[in-house]
Amino acid sequence: MSLIVDVFPARSDNFGYLVHDTATGRTAAIDAPEAAAIKTALLHRGWTLSDIFITHHHIDHVEGIAELKAEFGVRVVGPRAEADKIADLDELVAGGDTVMLGETTFKVYDAPGHTLGHIVFHDKAGKHLFTADALFSLGVGRMFEGTPGPMWEGVKALRDLPDDTLVYCGHEYTQSNAKFALSVDPDNVALQKRAAEVDALRTAGKATVPFLLGEDKAANPFLRADDVGLAKHFGLEGASPAEVFAVIRKDKDTF
């Protein structure tokens, strides 16, 4: 059987996701940015919410938990390292654990940096990766709590996943990410192509997710911090990838 993913807008620029295991009918929300948007998506699909998978503690990813749990009696799975920051969690997980949704298996990866306990969920069989604010199309999340070394290692682990993996991130930031990426890697043909595609999608009022991980590996400067050409652009020949990653992230913060 398979997993169906429903993508819908929430809040001002969040993505909402419902994942539906066709074998059993179980349906999970990936994060809970807005209860009303999730309930509207459920109604549209004719699904009943059974689970919520939480990636990190920020309010725009957890605000709907209480209302949805009260209405649907759902199981809420979330990051063990942030259990003290997120109310109503039923099951705690960390990198290396697995979570079942009916017959669908999700592997959990640690992705620290945006928050220290940030996790992501990977459906290997269906080739779906839910990264929230750890990895965006052509970017990564702002490093609010972590440090460059662990954040780089986290995104590098995601980079090792197959190129045909479909990535579902937390926000529609791709167009602004593309502008920054072009400022630091202007001769990257893959990036130029992706930026043009993104402009066309946004002009048409369409979302830029999901995106192929393989395309992002070639175009996202944060996934290329170990590329010698990018290091040279920053005058960092001989620096570690984590040091290059830190400089890219700092430049993006003030772009």
Automatic annotation (TrEMBL):
Residues 13-171 form the Metallo-beta-lactamase domain. Its cofactor is Zn(2+). Pfam families: HAGH_C, Lactamase_B. It is an enzyme of class 3 (hydrolase). It catalyses: an S-(2-hydroxyacyl)glutathione + H2O = a 2-hydroxy carboxylate + glutathione + H(+). GO terms for molecular function: hydroxyacylglutathione hydrolase activity; metal ion binding. Keywords: Hydrolase, Metal-binding, Zinc. Zn(2+) 2 binds at residues 60-61, 133, 171. Pathway: Secondary metabolite metabolism; methylglyoxal degradation; (R)-lactate from methylglyoxal: step 2/2. GO terms for biological process: methylglyoxal catabolic process to D-lactate via S-lactoyl-glutathione. Binds 2 Zn(2+) ions per subunit. Its EC number is 3.1.2.6. Gene3D superfamilies: Ribonuclease Z/Hydroxyacylglutathione hydrolase-like (3.60.15.10). Zn(2+) 1 binds at residues 56, 58, 114, 133. Belongs to the metallo-beta-lactamase superfamily. Glyoxalase II family. Monomer. Thiolesterase that catalyzes the hydrolysis of S-D-lactoyl-glutathione to form glutathione and D-lactic acid. This is Hydroxyacylglutathione hydrolase. It comes from Devosia psychrophila. The gene is gloB.
